[in-house]
Amino acid sequence: MSTLLEVSGVTVSFDGFRAINNLSFQIGPAEMRAVIGPNGAGKTTFMDIVTGKTRPDEGHVLWGEKSISLIGMSEAKIVRAGIGRKFQKPTVFEEQTVQENLLMALRKDRGPLAVLIYKPSKADLEHVVKLAEEIGLADALLRISGEMSHGQKQWLEIGMLLAQDPRLLLVDEPAAGMTPAEREKTTAILVEAAKTRAVVVVEHDMEFVRRLNCKVTVLHGGAVLAEGSLDHVTKNQDVIDVYLGR
Length: 246
Ligand SMILES: Nc1ncnc2c1ncn2[C@@H]1O[C@H](COP(=O)(O)OP(=O)(O)OP(=O)(O)O)[C@@H](O)[C@H]1O
Hints:
Helix content is 37%, strand content 24%. By secondary structure, the chain is an alpha/beta fold. The chain folds into 2 domains: 162 residues, P-loop containing nucleotide triphosphate hydrolases (Rossmann fold); 78 residues, no CATH class. It has a 6-stranded mixed β-sheet, sandwiched between helices. Strands 2-1-4-5 form a 4-stranded antiparallel β-sheet, covered by helices on one side. Bound molecules: adenosine-5'-triphosphate. Adenosine-5'-triphosphate binds next to helix 1. Pfam families: ABC_tran. This is Urea transport system ATP-binding protein.
């Protein structure tokens, strides 16, 4: 398997406490991966490292075919390199419609003047329709985003990230606060997205992880405790002891 992201021997300490401890793992170019683990396992810190928010003390974070180091790269440059991150709370422009939000996400030139004089091209409008179909909001293009449900806002934000066509999408607890029906639809959106890019989902909800039907990495104490299918890792006694059995 070729590698899109390689994290090797990464360590991060906060005031002497090792939040990430010699962490190593790899993600392939079009794969879905779930990352699970108890509170404080280092899941958020791992995403902070990959997106350039936190700089590791040791180790390598290599990206793409050319194995470019992401360490020391600015957060904006990492986004441009093709890494998108979805935080837990949706951050759509509430007063704008779904279409306007998606158009804004597509825009390459975001300078103030460019925004003022922007008229969407036919190609941009068609692209937005396609994105809206991918996130199940094709019938909601003209709806004001702030009036939609929590789940719909989350899908819109996923669509806004997909508009940037990232090669890796990091998604933090997408199922939180969703109804069972919304969770199911979220699974479908992410599974579809992972056909053409890597998608890494951090999630506590085991039913959600099961439906993603993918390789699972269990973090504990800032390192990989177990890795494999969900059935494989949930049978692991260490995983039961530190996470599932609690
Ligand atoms: N900026 C920081 N300063 C000090 N300690 C930190 C900082 N960021 C994270 N930590 C600590 O590092 C450890 C790992 O935290 P992290 O948030 O990555 O865990 P997590 O697996 O995402 O947990 P959760 O499931 O609760 O979100 C925790 O013990 C946390 O308190």
